[in-house]
Amino acid sequence: MFDVLSYLLEEYSDLETCPDRDDLSRHLVAAGFEDDEIDEALDWVEHLTSESSGVFDGANDASSMRVYSRGELEHLPTEVRGLIQFLEDNSGLTPAQRELTIDRLMALPEDDIDVDLAKLVALMVLWSQQSELPILVGEELLAAIHGEPTMQ
Fold it and tell me: Which InterPro entries does this entry report, sorted A to Z (predicted)?
């Protein structure tokens, strides 16, 4: 599934440029992906887009501190929570995007979650909302797909 998500990020400038689900599925099969991983990835993206419709927008208006629930603490490694905090502190994610990122990470198997996957999920959230982010934060996130960033 994660390879399909990475492929979507690389192939399409944003979610709006993706073809409909049937055409996209055919395109992904032609690119060499298996049907089950395509369906899983597209279901995940579909849920991402349905949650992007404003469910977490109230978080942008809050001036409180984010406290993780027990389930989130157990499901999300310390390094992943640190990355999410780093992204928010450096204007990479809004509070609403943070909540959506946490929501999408919580939907994944606990054993799969690591910092690189969290970077991919954050990128998917930003991609689905056509958000821009600071260049150095973007380089850090893209490292999850392309390898370590290089400063020039």
Answer: Smg (IPR007456)
Convert the pLDDT of each residue in 25-75 to its tens digit: 999 999 999 999 999 999 988 888 876 667 787 788 877 788 999 999 999
Indicate left, alpha or beta for 130 from its phi (over 0: left) and psi (-120 to 50: alpha): left
Q: Which of 62, 82, 86 is nearest to 73 (CA)?
A: 82
Asked if residue 57 is part of any domain, the answer here is yes
The whole-angstrom separation of Cα 108 and Cα 111 is: 9
Q: What's the pTM value of the predicted model, to 2 decimals?
A: 0.82
Cα–Cα distances in angstroms (integers) from residue 21 to residues 26, 42, 83, 125, in the given order: 9, 8, 31, 18
Number of domains in the chain: 1
